[in-house]
């Protein structure tokens, strides 16, 4: 029993140290494809993700030219993806119950000429868009935040239809 009393606190401390280590790793931009940024070690919280973007958006604009402005609407959009296990071959999802030829679960990048040129859409970490009116929307997880130029960051209220 004394061993358990010593081992359990040690495991708790090691777990916390591991979590802190993971959270303190800097974000690594692995690749950029048009308006898609592939990263490793992205912040875990919504606040951390949005803060990272705000701190790094000027450098990203200078280095990669993002976000690109769409000429027809004046909107600017960026998708930030977890690079996860890297690029995959474009093929149907083998984890589904029913066999299918569908590859909609993948986001493939046409400019890559190798067979491994896709990532999983489930790895989307954050989407951000800026309208021509100056409103920026951040979508992360199931939540959407918006911010007017110079204004506070506001969590968008969701109204669900009960029908």
* Poorly predicted regions: none
Helix content: 25-40%
Number of helices: 2
- Give the strand content: 25-35%
Kindly report the spatial arrangement of strands forming the biggest sheet.
1-2-3-7-8-9-10
End-to-end distance? 56 Å
Class based on secondary structure composition and strand pairing: alpha+beta
**Major β-sheet annotation:** 7 strands, mixed
Shape descriptor: globular
Strand tally is 10
Mean pLDDT: 86
**H/E element order:** HEEHEEEEEEEE
The gyration radius over C-alpha positions equals: 20 Å
General description of the model:
- The protein has a seven-stranded mixed β-sheet with strand order 1-2-3-7-8-9-10, covered by helices on one side. Strands 4-6-5 form a three-stranded antiparallel β-sheet, with no helix packed on it.
- The protein has helices at about 1-25, 45-65, and strands at about 30-35, 35-40, 75-80, 90, 105-110, 115-120, 125-130, 135-140, 145-150, 155.
- The relative contact order is 0.13.
- Helix content is about 25%, strand content about 30%.
